[in-house]
Amino acid sequence: IWTNEEVILSTRLFLLKAYWASHQTEEAFIEAHAIQTTVETTATKTTPSNCRSALLLLACQTIAHFANDTTNDITNDTTNNSLTPPTNCNAILALGLSSCRIILTNNTPLGGNPKQRRVFYTVESELHERNGDLSAAASSIESLIASMPPTSHGNNVPYITATSRLYELRVAMGVIDVEQERVKAEALEARRVVIKAHRQQRRRRVQNERSHRLGETLTRLAPQIKDRVERPANNTNESTTTRGFFEGLGTKEERAVLRSIDWGSVPPALTPDAVGGGGIRHNKGVRIRRKRMQLEALFVLLVDLIERHNLVTTATTTRSNSASDGYLHIVDFGAGSGNSCLVFCWLLRDTCRFTLVENNSTAVAIGKQRTREAGLDSTVSWMCGDVADFDAPFDIGLATHLCGGATDLAMANCLDQKAAFLVTPCCLGKLKYHVATKNNNSKGNSLQYPRSTWLQKHLTAEEYVDLSRFGDCSVAEDGVGGRMEEGENGNGMRLEGKMLLDADR
Hints:
By secondary structure, the chain is an alpha/beta fold. Helix content is 57%, strand content 7%. It contains 17 helices and 5 strands. The longest helix is centred in the middle third of the chain and has 52 residues, at 178-229. The termini are far apart. Residues 233-246, 440-444 and 476-489 have low confidence and may be disordered.
């Protein structure tokens, strides 16, 4: 319930705003002066309640802003110089400053919260400057900056604005010599340029030394790498007919024959250019063409892997990991929304069952929608979780563009299940996070880096991280988008580093 004083004060505030809006400055000043008297009397004689404090705070805010805006209009508009005493610029300034002081010297609820007090400091500084007292204006800004918590410094906009304002006032006061400050700033900038150049030079020297050491390592291990990546399949002696590990699918003529996917028969919801959701959105032309080429190549390898798996299981007469209904169980780790596997699900729907594992719930929801639209609910199941969380038996594991050490987790999971795998590593530079944390696989066995006992004899974990950073490069067959060093030798070394990482796996 409002008291009579509060009702009268609210009415006067309404009149003040009305006069102020209609540019009736003398009438507005009379109302502001009366409100000011009421506020001073209430603030000095009693401790107002929270409700009354809010009303008095609003009154002081209104008076301060009225004084600031009106004196600014008087200063910039000569038509207002006809105002008669006591309604002159100095009287209005004094009224506004008095309102600011009432708030800023009060520690009761009338003093407002820190954000409100900072507004009063800003208005008080502007009023002092308009009154010609630059020292008092600077003092208000200093108080404003002091009221800001240290965590708000740095790139905080209010803090930057306040410090810039203080600098301008000090320049106007003559406290700061602009020319001297300019010379200091230029010297500081020149020093920063020199320090930056030294850092870049030191970084290049460290990189060159690291590259030199890695180059020596690659040269020393080159024969072993060649032997391991070109080793014939199934330990046979058919080296002349076995495709090398890094030779891809052969010549262009051979690849033309290996167009393994009839894209016209694949449901639109499953293709890389799917419109409804999950398809490639940006730079579609190049990326969709590459994605189709990748899926066609992977499908050839996957079919070959399935055929070899069937030969092994036929010879042993048992299929340990397959479902009881006889279907081959394939798991895709890091499936995203299905761009790298749903096409395979469609093409192999008569002989295989798929589980797609992805830790992004949004991608899983999109993938499930694509699965339903293609009618693959009985063929495909989705799991929202990490690679290491999947512990059900399966026959073949896939991992396409699974970043950093997540590829190693997928391979470890496949080895735990005695399953075959087909992986396409990427983001080798992110291996440093897995080397540092030694992420665990599904059975809690720490993954060691380097991965093989062979490379552990030649590289430390630190050297392995350097190698992963060095070998983190991509090469596009059509020459678009490759992120390689300039110079033929640099490119070759980085590719050799990439080859060593994959050989280690």
